[in-house]
User: Fold these one by one.
Assistant:
Number 1:
Amino acid sequence: MIRTFIAFDIDENTRNECMNLTYKGKSIYHKEINWVEPQNLHFTYLFLGDIVPSDKQSVINLISEVAQKTPILHLKQGQLRWNPPFKPHCLWIEYIISQHNNLNKDGSNFDFSNIRKRFIYDLKQELTYLEFDKRDFKFHLTLGRVKSKEIKSLNIAKWTLNEESIETEIYLQNISLYQSILYPQGPVYKNLATFPLQNNTGGF
């Protein structure tokens, strides 16, 4: 079995902004949080979990179809948040999707939610053994995960998150399938396939 997930890749400006926040976070929380390595930052589209290696190509084919239906995505108004807000398990930057810039070729608004729901439905027809998180999807970049032994005692008041400015607007241009390889020192993500999103709005 191989442990896999699907994600949107980020650009270097976004990565650098995330790392600036991480450096500040490390100066406040010295031992309570496992911080995400810069090369591992991404927007998760869907966590698959363990799949049979022979099913990998079926997943890749479905991702290719999604990429052909999805325009380059414009995200804005990033907000640094604890998740959940009380006794959090992780710290992330949450974004909203811009309806103005994300258009289909005919000029209509792109319906991200429906495309994703259809993808999950098609995937479950191919890989019937998969189970998916039913919580509402949020565009987010996870910066760090609170260590399990620190969840109850973490003092979230030490960092006033709403005072942090997230200036970068993001254009997501690629969607990828990754294998997550777990090591004692942390995960390594191996790219298995990448597809460009469709530049349906005339270029950015």
Number 2:
Amino acid sequence: MAVLLVAFFVILITAIVIFQSEHEIDPVTGKYIFKNFYDAFYWAAVTLTTVGYGDFYPVSNLGKTLSIISSLFGIATIALPSSIITADYMQELNRRVKAKMGDTDSQEEDQQKE
């Protein structure tokens, strides 16, 4: 739950910063990149989760720098905790499988670790 809360606040702050800093007009379409805050929030969520659809993208140097930083925060806030949780889950699953199979050696090792 804490990871989701941190991710939401990082998305929110990133969206606010990119919306305020990206005032450039897209040279291809001639329109503003982020027409409203929802576009910036959507971009921040997609960038933070490292999906990167490419339908919204910054064109200014500041916006590009913010997108790099946002991607790095995405890795730090979502990918790393997810891998840690998955590793703990797999360890517990393996322990339960061994216990179910009657592997007394692994049970003794677990008791010694505690």
Number 3:
Amino acid sequence: MYRFWQIANPHGVLTAIGAFLFVLALLIHFLLLGSQGFNWLADAVSDGPAEQAAAPQSAATKPN
């Protein structure tokens, strides 16, 4: 293994691995956002205000 690090620059290899993992993470997140079952942004927008408006207020939270 030491011969590999004599040929390759360790700083360049670690930078390339970090860049690859960052691009992979972005790809996975955008694929999930594009799917209907795992899009957490659309779920938060569609469920938030509708549930609050439909939920009845209790006596303790009603304004006077």
Number 4:
Amino acid sequence: MKKIDLVYMWVDGNDKKWQDEKAKYLQIEGGESALPPDATVTARWRDNDELRYALRSAEKFVPWINHIYIITGFNQVPKWLDTTNKKITIVPHESIMPRYSLPTFCSDNIEMCIANIPELSEYFLLSNDDMFFNQPLTKDFFFDRNNRYIFRFHKSHINTKKIGFRLDASNDYIQRLILAQNKIKKIFHKNVSKYFPSHGIDPYIKSSLKKCVMHPMIKKDIDLQLFQKFRQGYQTQRLIFNLYDKIYGRAKFIRARNIKQSTNKLWNKIYNFIHRSSILNSPCYCIDAFNANLYKFIPPIVCINDTVDTSDEMRRHNREWLNWRFPDKSSFEK
């Protein structure tokens, strides 16, 4: 069986020194108004102690993970983390990113450099700290017998004939997805506009990432992007890795579906019944664990995102669910 590592990205946005550094570079950029709204929202960096529970979920449900890497900058390390655990390695930004790109406040830029982690296995999983394994999973949930990784996507309904309008009307996250699609289409003359990521814990192949970022038409954009300290709407998003691997047959694409939670309860029931099998095998994205019914609904992977729409009550719901679902201290904690 192949070795599979697990990579997390983490930052403590509550750290005063980090906040001062961020404020300094924001001023250089011209202030928050000079950047997309999503690029500077406090929720993007707020530490709600999710990483502690993410590691508990990994130890509980994917104990076969070979090694865990935690990418972080500004000399930050979670205070509760047992750094003497031989299964954990802290990866400073400066060990994988070029000097001119630092400091960085942009996760997209970090993701472009993940393949530079020393000793990272050929096959690995990439996760944000707000993503949790939620049931026992085997390696073949992420990789098939032909060593292709399994990429779970949501179907996009973008009308490519109106792509300019869609770019102008979308938030910076959607813009970056569209630009990744357009880049692959330009290089390979393949229409990949229907594929959007499902916002879960995704598998990758290190050698393939290296090939993608070194492609001449991709590398020049990444090199320029790394100069940017904050997220911008025109930057390369890691969806480009998945689309690149689809072209070369290194990824198997499977459609994912999130549980329907609209105000139309009858339609919710019909949709969720029809697509039950797909929903039960797809990552679940939510901002409120209680409203997502996570006490009864057990998807394989859960992402509980902290956004501008997340209220204090929602954060309390999320903390209560995390304590209920992952109550036992892991070996990664002091």
